User: Fold these one by one.
Assistant:
Number 1:
Amino acid sequence: MINTEYFTLGHISLLLGFILIIVGFWGILTQKNIVKIILAFSIADAGINILIVSLGYVIGKTAPIIDGSVVQKAGIDVSDSIVDPVPQALVLTSIVIGFGVTALMLAYAMKLFTAKKTLHINKFNDLKW
Amino acid sequence: MLKNIIIAVILIVFAVLFFDLFMLYEARTGLTGIAQYYAQNGAKEVGAANLVTSIVVTYRGFDTLGEVTILFVAASIISFFLKLKENDESKNISSKDTTEILVTASNVLVPVIFLFGIYVFINGHLTPGGGFQGGAIIATGVALMILANPNIKINTQIIHWVESISGVGYVVVGIFGLILAGGFLDNKITGLGEFGALFSAGAIPIIYSFIGLKVGAEISNILNKYQKSQKND
Amino acid sequence: MVTPIFIVATALGVGFAIGVLNKFGRNFTGALVLAALSFMTFISFQWFYALTFNNLSEAYVFTGGFKPPFAINLLMGQYESIATLMINLIGFLGAVYLYKSLKERGSDAQVVYLILIMALNVLVMTRDIFNLFVFSEITSVAIAGLILLEKGTRSISAGFKYIIATSVISTIFLIGIVFAYFITGTLNIDDFIGISLSTYKGGTIVVFLIMISAVLELKPFPANGWGIDIYEASEAGFSAIISAATTTASLFVLYKIMAFAGAEWNYYIALIGMITFIGSNLLGLKQDNTRRMLGYSSIGQVGLLITILGFKDILGENAPFIFFGILISHYFAKAGLFWLSGIINASNLKAWSIIRKKPILLFLMGTFIFALIGFPPFPSFFAKWTLVMDLVKTGNIVWVIGILLGSLFEAIYLFRWFGYAIKGDAEKTEEYKIEFHKIIPVWIVALSLYVLGYFIAQYNEFTSVINFIPLAFVALIFAIDFMPVLIKNTIAIIGMIFYFYTIYPQLDNLRLIFEVIFLIGGILALIAGYLHKGKRIGFYPVALLMYAGLTGILEAKTTLEFFYGWELMTAGSYFLIIRGKRSMTHALSYMLFSLAGAYAILTAFGIASVGQSTWSLSIINNIQYIPLWAYSLLIIGFLTKTASIGLHIWLPGAHAEAESDVSPMVSAILLKAGVFGIVLTLIGMGAENNQYSELVYVLGWLGAITALIGNLAAVFQEDAKRLLAYSSIGQLGYIVFGFAMMTHLGWLAAFTYTINHFMYKSILFLTIGAVVLRVKTHNMYEMGGLIKKMPFAFIAVLISIIALSGVPPLSGFAGKWLLYNAVILKGWYLQGAIAFFSGIIAFLYLFKLISSIFLGQLKDNHRNVKEISIWFIIPIYILIVGLMIFAAKPELILQPLGTMISQYFPEGGLNWNGGMATTSIGYWHGTHIMIIVGIMFAILFSWLAFLSRKAQKVKQFNIVYSGERPFTPETTHVSYNIFAGYNKALGFLVLPWITDFWTLTTNIVHDISGFVRRIYSGNGQTYLTHIVLYVVVIYFVFFN
């Protein structure tokens, strides 16, 4: 069904990205320890980042830096030689955002542990219905 | 039990959704859309050899501003969230003595790491890397310092000054772009210089330097707060 | 004009700089933040003004020096300017409110707040989808941090649940975005709109992912447990910001995404919104924590706004008006309520009674609640009206029912809460100080609601016809509420006289009758108010509000003005009723029944407007589309006001527990508004038209049965005022019955009853009320023998019960005679028999009333009571004079009435010959009867006086029976349980079946609410499961 001739690097990394995201979601929904949930978020973030980068893949081309391995005069059209630079820019932002959120979540985890001496998610249901 | 079934169903549906997306992926053979434009014109319009940098700092510079802001907000929140009470400040963190290897290696590596980080963000427009990467590297150095000596006193004053000045500097450069050039965060406020040289691509090295310092300072700040919060116990 | 990018630049510049500027102190940084926010507000306002009033066209702001799609751009158009103005304004006011909390947490907190407001601005303005993602992340992180302004574990765990929930949502969002880039090659929203994204291969899935994330950000029901928690756990001032500012931004984001998502999403969006609106408000019913309840209400309102967005294409050019009208009302009112809850600091709903210590806060709270429900003069009134009209016109009646149902749920818990505030026990003396910086924002938003209500009404040509003058008068009285009663009462009376004088030439005869009843009756009732010494705070504005509404109904030329007056009347009367000592629950049930009736009327007006181009009241004369439903709804709506059987349970409590001079207002005057409505409806149905004969037939039966049950229930009452209240129910039954006959004589009889009932019920309530004021009890068996002490009262009651019972020579007989004739000529023998049977029953309670109170033996504790107050005697005797004139010379009123009715029913009227009236089956001459009866009475009375001149006067205890001498008056009182025998025979008819039915309905709804809300188990992971499960469900629904 899936023709291996057309199964490129892009496909492989895309698949990897999706698998990581699913694993991350699984972790978020099933793990009980708060730190493990945060780790699951990290896994999902990694998955998304791989996904984004792999969407930028162009077969056979190289990094979007105009130096020795591409024609290096300014002003020349390099669009035949490079992969898509836009996802790389997006993923940069995504990584930073992921970092910020993870840092915040860890701070929360620290405070939650200080408050109740446990990291079990089920113990933190003070507010309900 | 019911919960597990529901979760299984949810994951399966997501898998199906992702499979649909996967199926519509065909590896590309050339650039289209805005990517093509960037590839064709990025070098001469912005002047940076690293196309990703030109996108991050100039074309989509507004996003980068947002990115920096997120880090800033996260750091600020952690600052007031993990604020210590007065009498806790003077406590010492008890821990096992750190090994000699770690201490020695840290003494050797930390300056190199800092240097490398600075190199990365200064050359952001020429080689892979940039402000964020450089700042993160600098922060790694700080992390190493903390690991080596859990009671190290990091000078938060310097961190705050660096953070503020770089932040304000970034916004000011952006406003200069508005006044002197084509729009907010336009990098053509100075000449584009010679392509491939260190002082090229207009304001990009300046911006990336500010970003690098700011990010480094912020992450160090976060690490510092984590470090100090151990005194709470 | 300052370029909008400075909104961002200022906030960030100031924010980054504060890191080192905090060495100048937190007050300095706080002031900087306020300065930045005010500058941002100024920029938005500048653009709003230019775009709206100076016809500037929208402006794109480019960044990076390049044009889109290669660089990110922002748009400042008219909607963006309104939205950013709203966000910045509430951000500024919020910063004022939160000044101390933010300062306490430090300059970092101040900066995060500033950045949050900035990020919300960008969400509105940006045209790039990835930029949208970045700034929504900023928003989420900032909110997660600011939740922590409130200390304690609850806020930490709420914040954590929030951050993990939004992370999941943003993951889904990001996947959608990158694939959107992949398939289109651009990240610009305008490009997406241009190329119509959903037609691309894979486009639907991508759009699905993006859309569902935007929806989830708005906290749809039931995937919103995490959202409710942040409302409950945050500091009150911050909950206000979340409720007002972030919802505005998130709704705008949804709007932008809908622009490229394709029209097939509209239906689903509307459905999601509707489920959220109804579900969230349903769950609000069982809340007893203030902030949690306000959280449910906020989410509910957002659901309504989402529904409106879903319908935006159908609503056409009215869509922005409707959307912003409701959004602005929600935004100001919710902020105000959250802010108030921060000032009062009562976390339990019942503890809100302490708000009464500073009564002005009660006014503010009332303003916000009424604005949320959609009462005039607030923007939400006009918006909701237009929404209902447009939805019905386009055939979406089921949606209208959903909207009104959700609104009713919301009204239930909001008014219940308001009842606690007004009348709950104020025993807890927890003092609270009103801090200056906290109360100013509350005042600003409250006043804005009034001002904006006025301006928004002017915006739409249809709604600008509303007459605001009576409201201005009410505002004037409110402003002088600190003055003593003497001044206010006089001003009020003069105002009403003056108003009547100016208005009556413009009214046709039909309306003139009612105007006299409303205004003149009102003036008479107000005279009794002179009794009060002191200030009587809060009485005059609301009483005048009710009268403003009543006259508004009569002056109305369009359905909108009618409804406007109707709602004003309801609001005013609610406040009047709740002033009674034990009125808390009665006022609530009054309000709910009134609202339900008003919604029925609203729907009917909507149906009537189908196919018409105006909203003139005459449209109910010719309803094209499902007329039977429309007329039935109108009748049901008006019958809630006349308290007909099944819809009557609110009346006895409300009327009986009201203050002494309020009871005549509500019982004699207010009920007639319902009568007027029924008259209009029946005129609209057309006299000759037989196509509605089943409807009027049912109406006739309803009237007859109401008369029976009302009168019968009155018989068994021990409380004098309750007796009169049930009597009103019965009398209104007669009136409805008379009108339902749809013949000239029937209408003549009904109008006669109306006028009569107004007069004698006013007299009765005024007198009994005055007696109650003297003897300090409502129960008749505790009174007795008062004829010796209050002869004037006795005479007044005697005359009015003679009139009520229909005995000649007084005016009630005219009505009875006309009714006899009408029934026989119409052929409704069975209904007529029931009606007359009720009339006989009326004798029983009338006798009980007068004999228990005035005859019999005087009680010990009443030995020193005085005659009733002169201030009550004046209006009472004016009315008695009116009654006597009507009785002596009935043709003065009946002839003009007959002429007026002839325009609807030309045949079958009375033939007048001097003072003699004839119908085809009988004749009657009022003046002659009066003379004859007078002579008979005089003869008998003088003979009695002659015979008893030698009678021996016996003291109270100089009697013996069954060999015992009584020593206390109670044992000789005939009234207690007087009609026990009748109770055995007919008592089953007055068992509280209907009350039980309504109680059952209420309990079922509350139980459902209690059951469903258990899904909010408090566990953050469960909430995440809800979120992804929601995605799965919508996926199945949408893709099948």
Number 2:
Amino acid sequence: MIFKKKLRYILVESSGALNFSGLEAAESLRKAMLGFMGQLHYFRANPKVVSHLGGSAFILSTNRGYEKSAILALSFIRNIGGEKVGLYTIRTSGTVRSLKSYFLENYAGWATGKGGS
Amino acid sequence: MHAFDLVGVKRNDLGELPGRLGYKKIFYLGRDCEIVEGIREQVGGKGVIRSGNHEVVAKMLRQTWVIGMLPNNDSISKLDLQAVKDNEKSVLLPLADVVCADESARQQKLGRMRTLVRNLLRFKVPFLLVSLAEDRESLLSSAQMVEVAGFIGIDEMRARQAVCRLGELI
């Protein structure tokens, strides 16, 4: 039997630019989600940043069935890397491609790095 | 169904963000609606009463320009809930207060909000979900509003209806 990993992807926009090229923002986000979800739930959901789009949008993956918990945890996060931030869950999907095409359609100008309001 | 929200942020700060967050329109405190804490006449648009005095609440809920009431110190007495129901108004549940609270106060606010929700559902009082965010970082998308509502005890279908009803009232 082959067990295929089933993931759910969440398009998240933050109120300020997040620099995922370094490790600080990703680690801070991980710790914040761990704090809100707890170790057991975090292990089961296994949230990870899979793609960074534009200045303040990114795609988070979770195991299927735990996307609602991830959305709830993101709602409570107020601080990443010592900076005040708000994380907005825009859309969920089963593929990264559909979220990227949604992002390109609706966030005109962000793909070129001009940022958004 | 289209989602709506009521916020305390300045309109110029948001730009095109409301559309991306899943709202058809965001209403602004001070422009579309105001919070009233005592007995007075209508000045601008619609109003929402917030008071711990039952007589003030009962009198203001009879006004046609008042659409509902906000919790006072995260709770509403059963007399006030009855007045809301009798006058066919709604209770507005501010979710940003719960989500943006400090760690020390969050548990208390969550507990009080759950008690309020339990009473609203038990007495079948109509309610709306709003964020009442005071800054950009406190905003919530429509999907997040439904999830936070589920967290405090409102089922998904009712939460979706509650997020969409504000547009009919303002």
